[in-house]
Design goal:
By secondary structure, the protein is α/β, with parallel strands linked by helices. It has helices at about 5-20, 25-45, 45-50, 105-110, 110-130, 175-185, 200-205, 270-275, 285-290, 290-305, 330-335, 345-350, 360-390, 405-410, 410-425, 440-465; strands spanning about 55, 70-75, 80-90, 95-100, 140-145, 145-150, 155, 190-195, 215-220, 225-230, 245-250, 395-400, 430-435. Helix 11 (about 330-335) runs antiparallel to helix 12 and helix 13 packs across helix 15 (about 410-425). Bound molecules: beta-D-glucopyranose (BGC). The site of beta-D-glucopyranose (BGC) has 17 residues, from helix 7 and strand 10. One of its GO terms (molecular function) is D-glucose binding.
Length: about 475
């Protein structure tokens, strides 16, 4: 049915409130060149200290080659849960047993001691349940926050992101805090072989089966990417420039825009979301993309349209649409999964928010808003990936992807596929591949590769000594 003049007028008004989410190809290309510049600042010794994108060297310089073997413990901290995993690797075969433990919000916002005590309790429980007491397994720790690595198993937290803000951890060595907590709680000792970011774990896990994989991206509660850089471009590297002359870089691109360079595309809703976050002015690119924030941006727009009389006529002002954080990002995926005019999922979401007497027109508008905000997120992530693909300039590259947003949103993959294609230099081929259990398998693989290289080095030294 064609729209009536009244409807057309209403659509026009709605458009005025959401047009800021629609960015042209030209704008995405501008964002790419700004990002590239910021990445260079992060990599260079003289500009790194003032750069927002820190481009941390990860000390990971080799990818798995399929000959890795052994039994590992892996830890995964980064979202609302903490996981402990037992990972058995035998060549290409990987067996994982894991347990998930909730991290209460009071712990996420408490002290570092509380957090690490909680982690230690979970590890002790896990090792008891899996009859691992007294066995000292090598451990890979996926710690999904910005860290300055001083070695593969030494990482100092540079700042908290997402929902975490535990006192007394910034600047501290994560590995040391873990050891101290385990000592406080029992006499348990572990050998931490590697501290790994989740983007790195994701890349490693996919690289185990695909030699072309040189980029990893997380689209989950937070957003971040890593890639394999030529060592000669890593000005901040303080070690040897020896073989292999490459280094996985944890970009921490979520902080892109913190110096104001993205202000020309941020909307009033992005600003409001930021003002009410636990880290105002920080992680501005992440706040436009990641799952922790997307639902809230949608809610802010719906709230505005409602106040302007363009949505939900006669709504109860006490309903949950007006409560911060109450429109979950999973709702965005659910709403966008409606494919007909019955709006089954959308109606269920509106019911859950306690909104009454909504019309099909309202559902249409809600879906439209979700579509715009998720597309902007997918396109910004694509601009970031296209920047990395162009930097690497390889004829064919695989990008490992993980995270709840990418997994559960019905269109994220396709939107990214199209946009990256539009933004990369012609002739560069790429593939987006879902990486499985990056945080568990990936962390164990980093540990396994490190042990394999350690063994090789020892053998070489013995051969030299015996020659
Ligand atoms: C963190 C990154 C992490 C990403 C995805 C961001 O908030 O700073 O280290 O990789 O979230 O979990």
């Amino acid at each position: 049915m064609p729209a009536t003049p009244d409807q057309l007028q209403k659509y026009e008004k709605i458009e005025a409130f959401v047009k800021g989410f629609k960015l042209s190809s030209h704008t995405y290309k501008k964002i790419m060149s700004l990002l590239n510049e910021e990445m260079n600042n992060g990599l260079h010794k003289h500009t790194n200290h003032s750069a927002d994108i820190k481009m941390f060297p990860t000390f990971v310089r080799s990818l798995p080659d399929g000959t890795e073997k052994g039994q590992f413990l892996a830890l995964d901290l980064g979202g609302t849960n903490f996981r402990v995993l037992l990972v058995k690797i035998d060549g290409r075969d990987v067996d994982i047993q894991s347990r998930t433990y909730l991290i209460p919000q009071r712990v996420m916002l408490g002290t570092g001691t509380q957090l690490f005590d909680h982690i230690a309790d979970c590890i002790i429980k896990f090792t008891q349940q899996h009859n691992l007491r007294g066995i000292k397994l090598p451990l890979g720790f996926t710690f999904s926050f910005p860290c300055k690595q001083e070695d593969l198993n030494q990482a100092r937290l540079s700042k908290w992101t997402k929902g975490f803000r535990c006192e007394g951890v910034v600047g501290e060595d994560i590995c040391k805090l873990l050891h101290e907590a385990l000592k406080r709680k029992s006499n348990m000792d572990v050998e931490v072989v590697a501290i790994v970011n989740d983007a790195v774990g994701t890349l490693m896990s996919a690289a185990h089966n695909d030699r072309d994989c040189e980029i990893g991206i997380i689209l989950g509660t937070g957003c971040n990417a890593c890639y394999m850089e030529n060592l000669k471009n890593v000005g901040v590297w303080e070690g040897e420039y020896d073989h292999p002359d490459q280094m996985l870089i944890n970009t921490e691109w979520g902080a892109f825009g913190d110096n104001g360079c993205l202000d020309f595309v941020r909307t009033e809703y992005d600003r409001e979301l930021d003002n009410f976050s636990i880290n105002p002015g920080k992680q501005l690119m992440e706040k436009m993309i990641a799952g922790m924030y997307m639902g809230e941006i949608v809610r802010l727009v719906l709230e505005r349209l409602t106040m302007e009389g363009l949505l939900f006529q006669g709504i109860d002002r006490e309903c949950e649409l007006f409560v911060r954080g109450r429109f979950y990002t999973k709702y965005v995926s659910e709403v966008e999964s409606d494919h007909d005019e019955f709006f089954r999922n959308t109606k269920q979401v509106l019911d859950e928010l306690g909104i009454q007497n909504y019309t099909s027109e309202d559902c249409k508008v809600v879906k439209y808003v979700c579509t715009l905000i998720s597309a902007r997120a997918a396109f910004l992530a694509s601009a970031g990936l296209a920047t990395l693909i162009n930097r690497l300039n390889k004829p064919s590259i695989t990008i490992a992807v993980d995270g709840s947003l990418y997994r559960f949103h019905p269109r994220f993959h396709n939107l990214m596929q199209l946009k990256i294609h539009e933004l990369v230099r012609p002739g560069l081929r790429f593939k987006l591949t879902l990486s499985h259990d990056g945080s568990g398998k990936g962390a164990a693989l980093v540990a396994a590769v490190a042990l394999r290289l350690r063994e090789m080095k020892k053998e070489d030294q013995e051969n030299v000594a015996n020659a």
